[in-house]
Design a protein that fits this description.
about 425 residues, alpha/beta, 8-stranded mixed beta sheet, 6-stranded mixed beta sheet, 19 strands, about 25% strand
Length: about 425
């Protein structure tokens, strides 16, 4: 019989990262408590793409997570295909007077036509889910006894004479644990406490997004079944647009990106007007404008990411960062959530190998050495990908863009997580 570990872990944040890590630890007999600042669990945003590496990580943590994912996944109306996105040009400025794309005259391709596919580099399960509904599936696997709601972290101090952490919450209560893992997202308080308020803060990427949902019957009417039911990426000058199905194909998720040099509003999500949205795509032609006009919500989401840091953990007291609290990224490679789940597998498995609280620091060190290079590479390459789609990295050279695009994703999708864990375990035991 496996015995319960003689230490306890506090998880700050009850989003996808926090709950996934809790499941990983609970199934490995590690006592854990999830502290969520909100009065109930919930996710902001709609569609969430999970690539094969993310789903493999789920399976390595617990088959129950994969089953929950399968209940919510959207695979495409023909039963699932191996392509990630079909790439098109949506901006009429890249075309001649008759709408034919410059550089594609010999093929007769026009604005909006399919240029190429980006195919997954392996045949693992992948697909889109609604964030809130996937969170509901995760919640089923975390007992209420491990959940604490309405707990907004203010500070962390060291327990007297120990490396244990004392959590201080806004409601005046405290809690003591052997270690704290910050899963509290891009605006992480845990990160600010560990790294300092200046280094802890995320920075504006120069891009923002409109996010919205279009009922699938309306999307099919506008675009046709083939386009509406499959993931599309439309490129242009200083902007791009994504569409993909979620909710078993009942809804088409739309994310339309644009640029500005600075972001001064203290809020990262602000209301806007239909006119402002349409003005950003005034050169993009009727199909794109119809989609933007059909988006029911009028919100702008400013896109921030974390600059590189030289550590994800500290030992006085024991604090570690995971997921977006460690390496918040722009969304341009669709890999942020997958990296969070990979983190959970590696860190949770390392903690499960520890027999005494004194060795938790070694687990954090091994996690940091293995995960920090990969996750910080994602932040950098994701920002570059946003530039690629918006004719800023390779200019508007469609041949160079296709070559770059087709070679930039395999390192994300084809990772050998079990090999990474073996490396981390050798560091832990060395």
């Amino acid at each position: 019989m496996t015995t319960t570990k003689p230490f306890s872990i506090a998880i700050i944040g009850g989003g996808i990262s926090g709950l996934t890590l809790a499941i990983c630890l609970l199934q490995r007999n590690v006592p854990v408590t999830v502290y969520e600042s909100a009065p109930k669990f919930g996710e902001i945003g709609a569609g969430l793409g999970m690539a094969p590496n993310a789903v493999r990580a789920m399976g390595l943590i617990s088959p129950d997570i994969v089953e929950g994912f399968k209940r919510r996944i959207m695979l495409g109306f023909d039963g699932g295909r191996g392509d990630w996105f079909t790439v098109r040009v949506g901006d009429h400025r890249k075309a001649g007077p008759d709408g034919t794309l410059k550089q594609k005259e010999s093929e007769g391709l026009k604005v909006g036509d399919r240029m190429f596919e980006i195919d997954y580099t392996n045949n693992g399960l992948a697909g889109g889910v609604h964030r809130a509904h996937f969170l509901d599936e995760l919640l089923k696997l975390v007992p209420e006894s491990a959940q604490r709601l309405g707990k907004r972290l203010v500070s962390i101090t060291s327990a007297e004479g120990l490396q244990d952490a004392v959590l201080h919450f806004a409601d005046g209560t405290t809690a003591q644990h052997s270690a704290v893992i910050g899963c509290d997202g891009i605006k992480s308080r845990t990160r600010e406490i560990l790294l300092g308020e200046d280094e802890g803060k995320a920075v504006f990427t120069g891009k923002y997004a409109y996010r919205g949902l279009i009922p699938m019957d309306k999307a099919v009417e506008m675009l046709g079944e083939e386009i509406a039911h499959h993931s599309q990426l439309y490129m242009g000058y200083h902007g791009h647009l994504l569409t993909y199905p979620i909710e078993k194909g009942k809804i088409m998720n739309v994310v339309a990106f644009s640029c500005c040099e600075t972001w001064t509003d203290p809020q990262w999500v602000v209301k806007t007007t239909k006119e402002k949205m349409l003005s950003d795509y005034s050169n993009w032609g009727p199909m794109i404008n119809a989609m933007v006009a059909a988006m029911e919500k009028r919100d702008i989401w400013a896109l921030f990411n974390h600059p590189p840091t030289n550590t994800y953990y500290g030992l006085q007291p024991r604090v570690c960062l995971l997921g977006d609290a460690a390496h918040a990224t722009s969304p341009h490679q669709g890999a942020g959530a997958g990296m969070c789940i990979e983190d959970c597998y590696i860190l949770g498995s390392l903690i499960a190998e520890v027999e005494d609280a004194q060795d938790l620091g070694k687990a954090f060190q091994a996690y940091d050495e293995v995960r920090r290079p990969r996750t910080q590479k994602l932040v950098k390459t994701s920002r570059e990908a946003g530039m690629l789609y918006e004719f800023e990295l390779e200019g508007d050279d469609l041949e160079a863009i296709e070559k770059n695009f087709k070679s930039r994703m395999s390192w994300i999708w084809d990772v050998d997580l079990q090999q990474d864990l073996e490396k981390a375990l050798s560091i832990l035991k060395g």
